[in-house]
Amino acid sequence: YSFFDGKPRWPEGTEELTYAFDPDNGLDDTVKGVFSNAFKRWAEVTTISFSEASSYAVADIRIGFYSGDHGDGEPFDGVLGTLAHAFSPTNGMFHLDQEEDWVATGDVTQASVSNAVDLESVAVHEIGHLLGLGHSSVEEAIMYPTISAKTRKVELADDDIEGIQVLYGSNPNYTGTPSTSRENDSSDGVR
Amino acid sequence: RLFPNVSSIPNWNSSHVPPAGAWNAYLNFTGCSRGKAYDGLSNLKIYFHYFGYIPTAPPSNFTDDFDDELEEAIKTYQKNFNLNITGELDDATMQQIVRPRCGVADVINGTTTMNSGKSNTTSTPKFHTVAH
After folding, report:
1. Which residues are paired to B3 by β-bridges?
2. Which of A189, B15, B40, B69 has the fewest CB atoms below 10 angstroms from its CB?
3. Rounded to whole angstroms, how far apart are CA atoms A75 and A67?
4. What is the phi/psi pair of residue A44, to 5°?
5. Given strand A16-21, what is the order of strands in its sheet?
6. Is A126 assigned a catalytic role?
7. Which pLDDT does position B7 carry in this prediction?
């Protein structure tokens, strides 16, 4: 695991972060539920919980789908390439490339398009950045920078858990699970 | 496009060709070697600059030359991604480069704590003592 330069994190004592979706995207409950699941994966292992805010303007974390140049100096590049990006604490911006073929639920490895991207897999990764984690060289880690199309990788690896617990400590209810029981799958066998 | 379920993706007919990935063209650089120039290689330098492997952009544009700076960037990239450190655009490296990824840089302000930013653990002591 790694941290951003200067090891930025949410302020000491932060117990809950709120998130909201750009209202212009008009996301349905299924899609919002995917993000909720992704947040839960981090909340299970550390001391911060997440809840959806009623107002986009005041949320700690602001989620939106955009294409091309969307005003933050980090333009998206169309199909595949860069899938999403998020900023270090306490910026809170989480942007996804609107031009991808995002799949919210179901077995993405069976998608009929070769460029289908599993939404939850990318969401779990970007939330790691929002909390302060950088990229990892551990291929099994969520914070590994690349992910193939038609691949699902949503379970935090030991490397991710250790990293986030260095920043915020461990959830008192977290007991740990064997990495062999985790759900990471790929259509091409790449993990 | 955002499909609520994988089964909601339309069944394309046989003539449907999925769009090429944003970086697929980089595969044409597989096997390129240092000291030569290749049309469009500057785009690959922009890629390495974007993700932090080439720290500073030139005053004008990147050249198409396979120079020392690009070779160093490739070596750092290969170390970060557990590839053989050759400094060459071999097939394994190119396949990794074109893979979809997060837009956050791997190297920020010239530093990284991915593999390339870590010291060789084999040369560090296994334990240390503290005087009281």
Report:
1. A103
2. B15
3. 7
4. -65, -25
5. A49-52, A16-21, A61-66, A93-97, A82-86, B101-102
6. yes
7. 87
Catalytic residue among A99, A100, A120, A126: A126
pLDDT single digits (tens) A145-179: 999 999 999 999 999 999 999 999 999 999 886 44
- For residue B91, give the H/E element and its range: helix B91-97
Q: Assign 3-state DSSP to chain B and report helix, strand, coil percentages, each to 5.
A: 35, 5, 60
* Residue type, position A182, single letter: R
**ipTM for this prediction:** 0.90
The alpha-carbon gap from B41 to the nearest alpha carbon of chain A, in Å, equals 17
Q: Say what the pLDDT of residue B128 is.
A: 59
Core vs surface per residue A92-110: b (16+ CB within 10 A) or e: bebbbbbbbbbbbbbebbe
At residue A175, what are phi and psi to the nearest 5 degrees?
-110, -10
Strands A93-97 and A82-86, how do they pair?
A: antiparallel
Buried b (16+ CB within 10 A) or exposed e, B79-109: bbbebeeebbbeeebbebbbbbbbbbbbbbe
* Chain A CA closest to residue B23: A81
On the 0-12 / 13-18 / 19+ scale of CB atoms within 10 A, B63 is middle
Residue type (1 letter), A79: V
The whole-angstrom distance between residue A30's C-alpha and the CA centroid of its chain comes to: 16
Nearest CA in chain B to A159: B114
B13/A9 Cα distance (integer angstroms): 49
Rounded CA-CA distance B29/B44 in Å is 9
CA neighbor of A85 nearest in space, from A73, A51, A25: A73
